[in-house]
């Protein structure tokens, strides 16, 4: 073998190795961050029909939901535990709740807060745990674990082809499972008809208030409520103030809502006067106090939120809602000023 032949073979081997490396680079598996980014984005050309089962272990409630999705349009048919049934239509801007018994549509606008994937990536570690098959479809199992102790974590199973999350498990800050959702059936081949997203003809339409809470800056909210709000001096690591909101309790008194967010978890601080400013005096005030057991304090609306801690300071009632460790909560309370 002459010198030129050897050089030709070496050159050929070098080129082949380079092409092999470059080819493997182009076909490299996506990172957990890339998979999550796809899952966070709604593809305009995706459409599917599926049955989703959800369980909230905190409120001990569950539901089965028939889901129709076409782009950013959703139809969700809820079958609740205990027999309740209703339909939600969501086009990303407006939400319609369909009541078949009353033949009524309840219309409301929605303001979806930013998902803040950048903030999530700052405060949580993504790990690709395995590649599994769910419903005969390849999925990526990704864990979302807090970098700062005392926060919740999450596991998601993302469909490799469509980036739809086929299963989700939410864990509390103490490690216990708090919420579970998973598809029992999904069909990405079906043609989802446009008429599924149309309002029923002849039904009455009731427009609900655009906002249950009004977002304001600190100066505006202090002026609106007539008292100086108190904020924590320090927050748990990774949390940012998402906004100030104003709403009113059923008695008419103002409630200030401060919401903090770390990309996955949120903490809410509600503040209102101990003696409800909306209670009033006279006959109406006495009637309202009688309905609430004779107490003068403003009552928070009862719903599925979990109150973590409540206390009174400087004539204000403070209510903390959210999933953080007891140690973080005590630091938050001690920093109120």
For the sheet with most strands, the description reads: 12 strands, mixed
Identify low-pLDDT runs: 22-26, 277-297, 300-305
The CATH homology group name of the largest domain: Lipoprotein localisation LolA/LolB/LppX
Strand content: 35-45%
Report on this model:
The chain has two domains: 32-207, outer membrane lipoprotein receptor (LolB), chain A (Clam); 214-334, MucB/RseB, C-terminal domain (Phosphorylase Kinase, domain 1). Helices cover 20% and strands 41% of the residues. It has six helices and 18 strands. It has helices at residues 3-26, 32-40, 117-123, 218-225, 282-291, 326-334; strands at 47-56, 61-70, 73-80, 85-90, 94-99, 104-109, 124-134, 137-146, 153-159, 165-171, 177-187, 204-207, 214-216, 240-248, 254-261, 266-273, 307-313, 316-322. The strands form two sheets. Strands 7-8-9-10-11-1-2-3-4-5-6-12 form a twelve-stranded mixed β-sheet. A hairpin with a 6-residue loop joins strand 8 and strand 9. The protein is globular. It starts with a helix and ends with a helix. The relative contact order is 0.12. The model is unreliable at 22-26, 277-297 and 300-305 (pLDDT under 50).
């Amino acid at each position: 073998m002459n010198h030129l032949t050897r050089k030709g073979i070496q050159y050929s081997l070098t080129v082949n190795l380079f092409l092999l490396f470059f080819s493997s680079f182009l076909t490299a598996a996506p990172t957990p961050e890339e998979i999550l980014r796809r899952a966070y984005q709604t593809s305009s050309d995706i459409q599917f029909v599926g049955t989703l089962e959800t369980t909230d272990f905190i409120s001990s409630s569950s539901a089965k939901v028939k889901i129709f999705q076409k782009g950013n349009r959703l139809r969700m048919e809820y079958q609740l535990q205990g027999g309740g049934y209703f339909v939600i239509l969501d086009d990303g801007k407006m939400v319609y709740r369909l009541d078949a018994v009353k033949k009524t549509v309840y219309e409301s606008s929605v303001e979806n807060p930013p998902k803040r994937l950048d903030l999530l990536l700052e405060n949580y570690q993504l790990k690709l745990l395995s590649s599994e098959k769910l419903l005969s479809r390849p999925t990526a199992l990704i864990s979302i674990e807090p970098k700062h102790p005392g926060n919740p974590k999450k596991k998601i199973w993302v469909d490799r082809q469509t980036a739809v999350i086929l299963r989700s498990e939410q864990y509390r800050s103490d490690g216990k499972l708090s919420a579970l959702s998973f598809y029992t059936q999904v069909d990405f081949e079906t043609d989802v008809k446009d008429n599924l997203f149309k309002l029923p003809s002849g039904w009455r339409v009731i427009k609900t208030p655009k906002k249950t809470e009004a977002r304001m800056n600190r100066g505006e909210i202090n002026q609106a409520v007539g008292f100086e709000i108190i904020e924590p001096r320090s927050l748990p690591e990774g949390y940012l103030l998402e906004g100030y909101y104003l709403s009113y309790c059923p008695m008419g008194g103002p409630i200030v809502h401060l919401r903090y967010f770390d990309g996955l978890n949120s903490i809410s601080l509600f503040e209102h006067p101990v003696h409800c400013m909306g209670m009033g005096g006279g006959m109406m005030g006495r009637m309202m106090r009688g309905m609430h057991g004779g107490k003068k304090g403003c009552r928070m609306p009862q719903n599925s939120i979990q109150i973590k801690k409540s206390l009174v300071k400087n004539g204000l009632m403070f209510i903390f809602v959210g999933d953080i460790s007891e140690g973080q909560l005590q630091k938050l309370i001690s920093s109120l000023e």
